[in-house]
């Protein structure tokens, strides 16, 4: 017996127990409402989605072709429409997640107005967005099920038993729009206690996976900006522990922690690591510092020194009181960061790179997997990369290595439109198309995401509409480029009243008031023009 049938029977039993005062309660309507409200709390969502992620991680370990993907979203409606689109075109949400980008929270959700990605926004806006996203995803469930219930009522009225059986099967086997969210907690917004408190709020809102980075909290920068400052491993491990304790306190024992390293592009550290014995973790961190050997006589007032192998070493300290790493140590630091994080409670890795290059990523992952064979990455397919130029240059280099004549191309100017229809451009586009598949097979990338794509799509679509509407085309721009496409491509928002919940409300009114219900969806509702 299905959950839907179980609910009908349970409510019917309650109705009988409560006698005539419950005569107006229809057990099937209650079962419908329960089906439309499957998840009662954020913690239920967190557990449900954590189970999904753990299953997906195990499947990826057995077969790297079954990687997962997400797009970053900044509003519940955008996340909802993404999942509706996935279900419409791909028929299942399997292996598709949402990403909550700290960059977009800062740029679009702060009460201060647009901010750079430097942890200056209100940290409470992060759990608020998680809650908002799941509110919209649950509403997508309610709307889609409501449409099925209406179809079921129509099939019953027509006496179409085949249709009744088919529609009931769709209801009984309904796939929810609720999927995992990987949520960005930046560098933890303060000390480990602050990280723990914020992580709890995020998990209570529904987050099953929290991504945290090894930058200094009060100097945090976007991963694609300069001036990044990392912390010693012990500091970062404390914050990983804080997130794990938050998961465990709330009963999400299989919550997922994504440990991000920005060391590839970070040349600075705020403080030296504590080292007790040669070769310990602190000593390994300090070994990457840019130092000069000095004698005791050369010690200056206020100098900080490290003693290693009987030598006195003075780290290069900047006017900002930050210490500098040696040039060329970024990859080695990334590898150490990743191994250390996985050995201390993290589940997945995130290596922030300066370009999308499979072999560069794979080179680091190969070294990590020498120590931890099932190491897996979340990778940022970032809009900060110039994908066209990067891959055309990679294609250029590949053709040159193969001995082909590349004299017709200017490697520095490959973004030029004159190259768009060339063999090189075609090869580069194919490399971009297969980047996720290749990265998952070769470089251990379990999850591919784009951090802020919907920031760009909102700007581009608005630009196209404004250009024509306020120009000579007027309403034709909207009708041709928006509404006509919505109708012909089956975009649900063409019936915007329905998307906002008007039909759900009408049906509820009928549940509550029967024939006396005043409904909005009658013959004079202009939404009927869309069939």
From TrEMBL:
GO terms for biological process: carboxylic acid metabolic process. Keywords: Lyase, Magnesium, Metal-binding. Residues 1-21 are annotated as: Disordered. The active site is at 222 (proton acceptor). Can also use Mn(2+) ion. Its cofactor is Mg(2+). Mg(2+) binds at residue 184. GO terms for molecular function: isocitrate lyase activity; metal ion binding. CDD domains: ICL_PEPM (cd00377). It catalyses: D-threo-isocitrate = glyoxylate + succinate. Residues 1-12 have a biased composition (Basic and acidic residues). InterPro entries: ICL/PEPM, Isocitrate_lyase, Pyrv/PenolPyrv_kinase-like_dom, Pyrv_kinase-like_dom_sf. This is Isocitrase. It comes from Microbacterium mitrae. The lineage of its organism: Bacteria, Bacillati, Actinomycetota, Actinomycetes, Micrococcales.
């Amino acid at each position: 017996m299905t959950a839907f049938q179980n609910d009908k029977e349970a409510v019917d039993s309650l109705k009988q127990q409560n006698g005539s005062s419950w005569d107006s309660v229809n057990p099937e309507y209650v079962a419908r409402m329960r089906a439309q409200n499957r998840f009662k709390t954020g913690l239920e969502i967190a557990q449900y989605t954590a189970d999904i992620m753990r299953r997906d991680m195990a499947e990826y370990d057995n077969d790297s072709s079954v990687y997962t993907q997400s797009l970053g979203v900044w509003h519940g409606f955008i996340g909802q429409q993404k999942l509706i689109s996935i279900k419409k075109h791909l028929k299942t949400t399997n292996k598709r997640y949402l990403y909550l980008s700290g960059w977009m929270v800062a740029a679009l959700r702060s009460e201060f107005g647009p901010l750079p990605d430097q942890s200056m926004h209100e940290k409470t806006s992060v759990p608020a967005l998680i809650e908002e996203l799941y509110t919209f995803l649950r509403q997508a469930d309610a709307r889609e099920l409501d449409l099925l219930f209406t179809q079921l009522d129509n099939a019953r009225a027509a006496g179409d038993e085949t249709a009744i059986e088919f529609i009931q099967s769709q209801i009984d086997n309904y796939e929810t729009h609720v999927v995992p969210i990987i949520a960005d907690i930046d560098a933890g917004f303060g000390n480990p206690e602050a990280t723990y408190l914020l992580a709890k709020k995020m998990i209570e809102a529904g987050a099953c996976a929290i991504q945290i980075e090894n930058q200094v909290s009060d100097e945090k920068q976007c991963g694609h900006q300069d001036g990044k400052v990392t912390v010693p491993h012990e500091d970062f491990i404390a914050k990983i522990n804080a997130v794990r304790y938050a998961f465990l306190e709330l009963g999400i024992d299989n919550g997922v922690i994504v440990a991000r390293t920005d060391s590839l592009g970070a040349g600075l550290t705020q403080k030296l690591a504590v080292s007790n014995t040669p070769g310990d973790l602190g000593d390994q961190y300090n070994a990457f510092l840019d130092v000069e050997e000095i004698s005791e006589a050369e010690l200056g007032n206020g100098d900080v020194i490290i003693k290693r192998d009987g030598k006195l070493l003075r780290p290069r300290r900047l006017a900002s009181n930050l210490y500098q790493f040696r040039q060329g140590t970024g990859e080695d630091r990334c590898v150490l960061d990743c191994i250390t994080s996985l050995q201390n409670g993290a589940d997945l890795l995130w290596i922030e790179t300066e370009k999308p290059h499979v072999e560069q990523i794979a080179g680091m992952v190969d070294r990590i997997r020498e120590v931890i064979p099932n190491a897996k990455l979340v990778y940022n397919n970032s809009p900060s990369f110039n994908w066209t130029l990067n891959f055309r240059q990679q294609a250029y280099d590949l053709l040159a290595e193969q001995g082909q004549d590349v004299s017709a191309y200017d490697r520095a100017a490959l973004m030029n439109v004159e190259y768009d229809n060339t063999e090189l451009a075609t090869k580069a586009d194919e490399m971009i198309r297969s980047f996720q598949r290749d990265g998952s097979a070769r470089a251990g990338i379990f999850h591919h995401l784009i951090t802020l794509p919907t920031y760009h799509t909102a700007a581009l679509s608005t630009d196209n509409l404004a250009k024509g509407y306020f120009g000579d085309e007027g309403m034709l721009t909207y009708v041709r480029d928006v509404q006509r496409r919505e109708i012909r491509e089956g975009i649900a928002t063409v019936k915007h009243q329905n998307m906002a919940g008007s039909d759900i409300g009408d049906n509820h009114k009928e549940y509550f008031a029967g024939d006396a219900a005043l409904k909005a969806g009658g013959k004079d509702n202009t939404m009927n023009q869309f069939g």
